[in-house]
Amino acid sequence: MTTGIVAVAMSDDLRHRLISDRDWDRLAAVAEVRPVPDAAADPGAVDGADVCITGWDTPSLPFSWLVGGDRPVLVAHTGGSVRHLVPAAALDHGVRITQVAAVLAEAVAEFAVMSIIAGLRDAVSFATAMRAGESWAALAARPPGRLLRDQVVGIVGASRTGRATLRRLRPFGCHCLVYDPFIDDVEAAGLGAQRIDLPALLRAADVVSLHAPVLPETRGMIGAAEIDALRPGALVVNTARSALVDSDALLTAARAGRVRVMTDVFDTEPLPPDDPWRHCDGVVATPHIAALTAETLRDQGAVTVDEVLRFLAGKPLEHEMSRAAYDTYA
């Protein structure tokens, strides 16, 4: 006996990557599961569903479905940001949302720390030179890297990912600063960091790692003046969103050799083959893969299915997004 209808509004390819056969069977055991591989072409396919499972290729959900029923529906997102799927007004009408930001944070934080260490040790440049046949003597004569233990690392944003990054930095013994207007000195100390304002962080940090959400208040928060304030040779790591930064100013600084950049996010994605971000010597660019691991994909699907089963059984959700959190989440 089924207890509801679950629409799965994502492409077949993405559905198979995220939802294992076991998790699909768990859903099908308690609900009528309705695949919707092209929700843009058939938005009415979610009508009557109690739950809609969404992915990063899901278009905005029909407002009529979100608020038109006689009981609240659940949007169960297999990614992080839900702003493109559900308008704030829908939450005011009782729509419930769950998402897997906590799962994604673990992978992104690991990638951020990897980027910090690789950037400080100039690992990519050394590997590229080795492949190009540079002599051993010339390689040995290059400037040495820097030890993470002796660096000041500035974390911009005490988000889930920012906090997970701070946890992973603790064993290295580096001095961590954190900027976030929503935490106080005591909370920052509990995270192993010193709370500081953004201008002071940018002046003091050897490494600046971005973990803030994109909100009206944070868009462009690292502008040309902020980039000019960075310490010479500072490393900027961005695994969050490119909209936090004046990309042109940052690229100019990297080209001039004033800063080095490890970035996983760009103003235009996919990044065109001729884009200058791909070809700047002071930049290591990766194709928005910080959260992309085989284990994370599996966990995204499993945690989402767990939440759907809780909802259908009338149990509390573990990853529900509140109305207040919606306003401060990317």
From TrEMBL:
| Source organism per UniProt | Jiangella aurantiaca
Asked if the keyword Oxidoreductase belongs to this entry, the reply reads yes
List the PANTHER family: D-ISOMER SPECIFIC 2-HYDROXYACID DEHYDROGENASE FAMILY PROTEIN (AFU_ORTHOLOGUE AFUA_6G10090)
Keywords, in A-Z order: NAD, Oxidoreductase
Name the Pfam families on file: 2-Hacid_dh, 2-Hacid_dh_C
> Where does the D-isomer specific 2-hydroxyacid dehydrogenase NAD-binding domain start and stop, copy by copy?
114-290
Q: List the Gene3D superfamilies hit by this protein, alphabetically.
A: NAD(P)-binding Rossmann-like Domain
Recorded protein name is Hydroxyacid dehydrogenase
Q: Where is the signal peptide?
A: none
* A GO term for molecular function: NAD binding
**Family according to the record:** Belongs to the D-isomer specific 2-hydroxyacid dehydrogenase family.
CDD domains in alphabetical order: 2-Hacid_dh_8
Keyword NAD recorded? yes
